[in-house]
From TrEMBL:
It comes from Shewanella sediminis (strain HAW-EB3). PANTHER family: PRIMOSOMAL PROTEIN N (PTHR30580). This is Replication restart protein PriA. InterPro entries: DEAD/DEAH_box_helicase_dom, Helicase_ATP-bd, Helicase_C-like, P-loop_NTPase, PriA, PriA_3primeBD, PriA_3primeBD_sf, PriA_C. The gene is priA. Initiates the restart of stalled replication forks, which reloads the replicative helicase on sites other than the origin of replication. Recognizes and binds to abandoned replication forks and remodels them to uncover a helicase loading site. Promotes assembly of the primosome at these replication forks. NCBIfam families: priA, PRK05580.1-1, PRK05580.1-4.
Length: 742
């Protein structure tokens, strides 16, 4: 719908500033040609020429002057919207995020907008045009239209009732006939605002009765219900303590005030049970935004949230940017989960942006988890966040038995100790399920020559090939490079090649032989890549079709397996010893999460860890004191080491075909950054995997005592960094608050 504007009020020429999805940290100016009569507004999409391409960007400013030379300025092709796409709060959020993550506003905005809109899809307008007869049309005689059959046809249809513009088109009624009848004043049109069902705001209906809250839950809910405006709360509750029930109680009071709730979860496919609990409690529309949707379905869900039709919006990381007509609360479940941090492109953290969004929208934010990230824990302990704790399991679930199996000098059967095999047999024979974690997929993590000891290494990366026996291939998990399993050693020509180490594929094979009566299922990225495969596996597990579950970290997230009574962690040593300073924190979270999977339904659970490090203090502390104390200890260690969250970190990655280019570039960057008591530059140094896909990778770390110091120092250096000649010879990227140092 085009709105014509009075030229005298808007003196031409008119110029717009546009944010485009390109890395350049600037807005681009364009002229609005006379052929476009709608007045552009901040936040509308425009299609513009950019070099040889056409790009879609968002208007960020309007002015009647432009300091580009007239021959330099290009015109926009098209204005795609007649109202701004996002509410003001979300512009403020993206602008803040672009500055914080040192990316362009256009890049940040394109994270915030559904793909369909980025590609130029039309937003269905919220009004509909109706055609109907006028008074004189109703009393007119159709005989006078004998010579005008098209007009007669229109009149015959409209005599039966009014028609929308879409119906007119699908009946293929003539446009000129409509025009003629309109001029005769026999028919007329009007625009009506579409009715959006917002009845849930008037009266909230429940589909099931809430559980009676236990005292801890009741205190948490009462505290949350007292909050008005922005508050951030960390809900630290052990697995099974009834956090989801607290969310539901909070939702009830938010929804009954006519406000919407946005719920972010790490991965939709992995948490079907949680989602169905939200869906079955309230008689409201729930928009679930996940990666299985088509672009158009995603857009439809986005619009339901934007209009307020959907009372509850559930989604993963990117759903953070979903607009709400009546924002009420933001809840992040499993707030510690690293999938909330985007790893590719703009490395934003949905948890941190959720807190900022809460600020901007003046609504509360609730972060729930059994194993808080050290960042959130620090904020809770320092009083920036409210801290609520749930320390008891809500149902009658029993406490978990924990144990360490010392495998130093023990014979292992394909990575399994006798002690673990025996324990498995006891649980399986009792009719229960057993879950084994091994964070290495494939058959074997390396291919070894038995004669010369050569380990076959990817020719493009600093990494060993993983053997995938079922595929008959060796594969590099870092660049995708793959070959048929060689028959001879690349080094000495020997044919005595064997897998070194154990992956999930081999583990599942050996378990099938060891326990022929008990069906084995393997859950990793290789067995769940087909759409729907994960759901099918999970269903079969719940039906008890499998007794032994072998999986990577994927299996640790959010599942409830009531019949699993034994959980075994096989690769504890590998998880503890990693180059990443977050390794102990991550292990603590994994261990605690999987322990929570054992014995939930009134069956006592057991968790066993196989390790060569039976006396490792991290393991001991976790087992004897639990995650809460362990995490507080870790936080102190980070403070002493000046690591996040005590200090603030920016990781600058550079990669190049010549290692020297990346090294020199980062050395020059280091020169541009301040080094003093409150800010530190570490590197350049090789990345933990220093060659990947044929390129050499180098890291530089910039750390400061305060967030603002980092912001100001780096903002100051950035233009100089960008103009370094080597900046063009390397691929480089910035990762603020990096979660993964690989
Ligand atoms: P969490 O999200 O903390 O892991 P859940 O909310 O899933 O915990 O609760 C664990 C189990 O306890 C669920 O089966 C839930 O139905 C049950 N539960 C939670 N709160 C209560 C309660 N107040 N009374 C009885 N059962 C409860
Ligand atoms: Zn060899
Ligand atoms: Zn590789």
């Amino acid at each position: 719908m085009l709105v014509s504007i009075d030229q005298s009020c808007h003196p031409m020429p008119l110029f717009v500033e546009v944010a485009l999805p390109v890395p350049m940290r600037q807005a681009f100016s364009y002229k609005v040609p006379d052929s476009i009569s709608t007045l552009p507004k901040k936040g509308m999409r425009v299609k513009v020429p950019f070099g040889r391409q056409q790009l879609i960007g968002l208007v960020t400013g309007i002015s009647d002057t432009c300091n580009l030379a007239p021959q330099q300025i290009k015109s926009i092709f098209e204005l795609l919207d007649d109202e701004p796409l996002l509410p003001d709060s979300l512009y403020k959020l993206t602008a803040w995020a672009a500055r914080y993550y040192f990316c362009s506003l256009g890049q940040m905005l394109s994270q915030a907008i559904p793909v369909a809109l980025r590609k130029g899809a039309e937003i269905s307008s919220n009004t509909t045009t109706f055609w109907h007869l006028t008074q004189s049309g109703r009393s007119a005689s159709l005989d006078t239209l004998k010579r005008a059959p098209a007009q007669k046809k229109v009149m015959e249809h409209l005599l039966k009732g009014e028609l929308t513009q879409d119906e007119i088109s699908s009946l293929a009624l003539s446009k000129s006939a409509l025009k003629a009848l309109n001029e005769r004043a026999w028919i007329t049109q009007d625009e009506r605002v579409n009715s959006i069902d917002l009845s849930w705001r008037e009266k909230l209906e429940l589909d099931e009765d809430p559980l009676t809250l236990n005292p801890e839950q009741a205190i948490a809910v009462a505290t949350l219900n007292q909050q008005t405006g922005y508050h951030c709360t960390l809900l630290e509750g052990i697995t099974g303590s009834g956090k989801t029930e607290v969310y539901l109680a909070l939702l009830e009071s938010v929804l009954s005030k006519g406000k919407q709730a946005l719920i972010l979860v790490p991965e939709i496919g992995l948490t079907p049970q949680t989602i169905s609990r939200f869906k079955s409690r309230f008689k409201v529309q729930v928009a679930v935004i996940h990666s299985g949707l088509t672009d158009n379905q995603r857009l439809a869900a986005w619009q339901q949230a934007k209009t307020g039709e959907a009372a509850i919006i559930i989604g993963t990381r990117s759903a953070l940017f979903t607009p709400m007509a009546f924002p009420g609360v933001i809840i992040l479940d499993e707030e510690h989960d690293s999938s909330f941090k985007q790893q590719e492109g703009v490395g934003y953290h949905a948890r941190d942006l959720a807190v900022m969004r809460g600020h901007l929208e003046k609504i509360p934010v609730l972060l729930g988890t059994a194993t808080p990230s050290l960042e959130s824990l620090q904020n809770a302990l320092s009083g920036r966040y409210k801290h609520l704790e749930l320390g008891q399991r809500a149902g009658n679930a029993e406490k978990v038995r924990q144990g360490i199996i010392d495998i130093s000098n023990q014979p292992l059967n394909t990575g399994l100790s006798h002690a673990l095999l025996n324990e498995m047999r006891i649980h399986l024979d009792a009719g229960n399920q057993v879950l084994l974690f091994l964070n290495r997929r494939g058959f074997a993590p390396a291919l070894l020559c038995h004669e010369c000891g050569h380990l076959h290494e990817c020719d493009r990366c600093d990494a060993f090939f993983t053997v995938h026996q079922s595929l008959g291939e060796i594969r590099c998990h870092h660049c995708g490079n793959h070959y048929a399993i060689p028959k001879q050693c690349h080094n000495c020509g020997s044919t005595m090649l064997m897998g070194q180490g154990v992956g999930t594929e081999q583990l599942a094979n050996i378990l099938e032989k060891e326990f022929p009566k008990y069906p084995v299922v393997r859950i990793d990225r290789d067995t769940t890549s087909r759409k729907g495969a994960l759901e099918a596996h999970l269903n079969a597990i719940h039906k008890g079709e499998y007794k032994i579950l072998v999986g990577t970290q994927m299996l640790a997230k959010g599942h409830h397996f009531p019949d699993v009574t034994l959980v075994g962690l096989l690769d504890v040593d590998g998880a503890l010893f990693s180059a990443d300073f977050r390794a102990p924190e991550r292990f603590g979270q994994l261990y605690t999460q999987v322990s929570g999977r054992a014995g939930r339904a009134r069956k006592p659970g057991t968790v066993l860890m196989q390790t060569h490090q039976a006396d490792n203090p991290v393991l001991r502390e976790l087992m004897h004191k639990g995650y809460g104390e362990f995490a507080r200890g870790q936080l102190n260690e980070r403070k002493q080491a000046l690591l996040p969250p005590a200090w603030h970190m920016l990781l600058i990655r550079a990669e190049a075909h010549q290692a020297l280019d990346a090294d020199n570039f980062l050395s020059q960057v280091a020169e541009l950054l301040p080094q003093n008591e409150e800010s530190e530059v570490i590197g350049p140094m090789p990345a933990p995997m220093d060659k990947k896909a044929g390129k050499y990778r180098r890291h530089l770390i910039f750390q400061t005592k305060s967030r603002n110091q980092l912001q100001h120092a780096f903002e100051h250096a950035l233009p100089q960094i960008e103009s370094l000649p080597l900046a063009k010879r390397c691929r480089w990227s910035l990762d603020r608050d990096p979660q993964d140092l690989l």
